[in-house]
Design a protein that fits this description.
Helix content is 41%, strand content 28%. The protein contains 3 helices and 3 strands. The protein has helices at 23-31, 55-68, 71-80, and strands at residues 2-9, 14-20, 45-52. β1 and β2 form a beta hairpin. It is α+β, with helices and mostly antiparallel strands. A 3-stranded antiparallel sheet has the order 2-1-3, sandwiched between helices. It is globular, with a radius of gyration of 12 Å. The relative contact order is 0.25. The longest helix has 14 residues, at 55-68. The chain has one domain: 3-Layer(aba) Sandwich (GIY-YIG endonuclease).
Length: 81
Amino acid sequence: MYFIYILYSEKKDKYYVGHTNNLTLRLKRHNSGRNKSTKSGVPWEMVYFEEYETKSEAMKRENKIKKQKSKKYITELLNKS
């Protein structure tokens, strides 16, 4: 199983979208400061995820969300869930 996930940083008031095959480990890594792009937003909270059979499917969905380049789009996605 693969997942797309959305993290939220209250500190930065920012969302981060990614994909993984292990949600728990990935959140721990983001919050440990290992990832340059999320280091300044620690602590991150997992606010959304979707499950996919393949890595390819998860990556396509991640890219679709990122192409929106819209906080409003992500907020609407969260409100629907």
